[in-house]
Design goal:
five-stranded antiparallel sheet, 140 residues, Phosphorylase Kinase, domain 1, 5 strands, alpha+beta
Length: 140
Amino acid sequence: MQSAVMFQMMQAAKFIPLWNSSGLEFINTFERAPSNHGIVDLMQSLSNSSFVAVKRMPNRWMSMDSQEFQKQQPYCLENPWRDIAAVRYLKSQHLPYICKNHGVFRDNEFTYVVSDFAEKGSLFELCKLVRFQVSNERQP
């Protein structure tokens, strides 16, 4: 599995289409990520009214690909290229509970990762919540 994710990481940056938000309507910003200067916006498709989450990260932080990112950010725990690759790999395994990834896009300033909107939050937030609940249950 690790080699499959590594392959997906190398593929992720090979062709990134230009960002075009003309088919989306901004609804609100629901998360800021100070560690990477990123923002997650809720947007709605004008064609089918579905909601998507658009994570916008500066290109200067994202780097051009996973190898350049690793050189520039060797101690960073967050790795957006690994995240993109992991989602692509899980999708290739036809797992039913993965939010659909609509793509990775770029303009001169930002990289955008677009996925289905998870109404109950991200897996990361859910894990923090469950961990908090479990640790509280252990209290006497």
